[in-house]
Each structure stands twice: as structure tokens, then as C-alpha cells.
């Protein structure tokens, strides 16, 4: 979420400067940077059990937490797409679209929880699966809104221009992430 905050700043500036097409370019850059960060963090999810054991956690709890962490990998990747889309739409004052997609996500989450936890009795794993499903509803819904005509001036499709300036975007995203991460420490 912290790294997606860089997008909020850039999109706000581009929108104010009436360079609307740049919002879509910045969104794509954000997706690429955050997706790569998710890939880099993936070993933490995959090897959560040995990591937890190495820092002194009990074997039983480490195994349970490690198994759950692997089930949460899809949720982890959904953040890389959802948070930038949310910032992209917020900078255009499209809060109503975000709200309605969140309502749909909530309904899907309740239904998925009922199925996986209530009917299938999957316990904590069922909760993780329900979260995986409902959190992917959010970026899919927001992207559907954006690409489906909700943002005609700011989303003009995928652009090769998004591939340039990735290093600068990464530095800005990392700085935003560190800033938001360190706020609770102050």
C-alpha cells in the first residue's frame, strides 16, 4: 500500500496538469514495479515455515502458519493490482466506482466464506481461500470499470511508454513505502 502511494502523487499531478493519458502510464508502471516486488517477496510465503522455525517459533505453529502463508499467495499478488487501481481512480475523484466494487467484493467475500468455511468446513484455509477470491474481485472490478469506459481520458490501453522510467518509479515507490512503513514508529 505504501509503494502504491507514489502513484497517488504522480496521478494527482498529471490530472491537475491535464496530462490525463499519463495516469494510465503511471498505473502500468506501478503494476510492473509492485508485481516484481511481490515476486521478490514470494520466497517469504513459500518458505514461511522454515523461516519461522529459524527465528524460534514452535514447530507446530510454524507448520500451520507456513501452510496458511502459501494459501495467501494469490491475495498477496492482488494487492499489486488493487492498490494502484484504487489510487488511479481516487486521483480522478471516482470514489463511487471504488465503493460499488468494494460492495461487490464484500458480498463475494461473505458468500465465499459461507461456502468454504460453513459448507466445506475448510477452517482457516477456507478463510484464506475466501480472501483470495474476494480480494481479486476488487482489481478485476476496478479494471473493468476503468477499461470499460469509466475513464475514457485516463485509460487509453496498454502503452510501451510505461516501460520507460521504471527505475525512477521504483525509487519513488520505495521511498513512499518506507515513509508509510515508518509512520507508526514515530
TrEMBL record:
UniProt keywords (A-Z) are: Membrane, Transmembrane, Transmembrane helix
- Transferase in keyword set: no
Tagged with keyword Mitochondrion: no
- The transmembrane residues are 32-52, 64-85, 97-117, 124-145
Q: Which Pfam families match?
A: MatE
Q: Which family does it belong to?
A: Belongs to the multi antimicrobial extrusion (MATE) (TC 2.A.66.1) family.
Name this protein carries in UniProt:
Protein DETOXIFICATION 27-like
Lineage of the source organism? Eukaryota, Viridiplantae, Streptophyta, Embryophyta, Tracheophyta
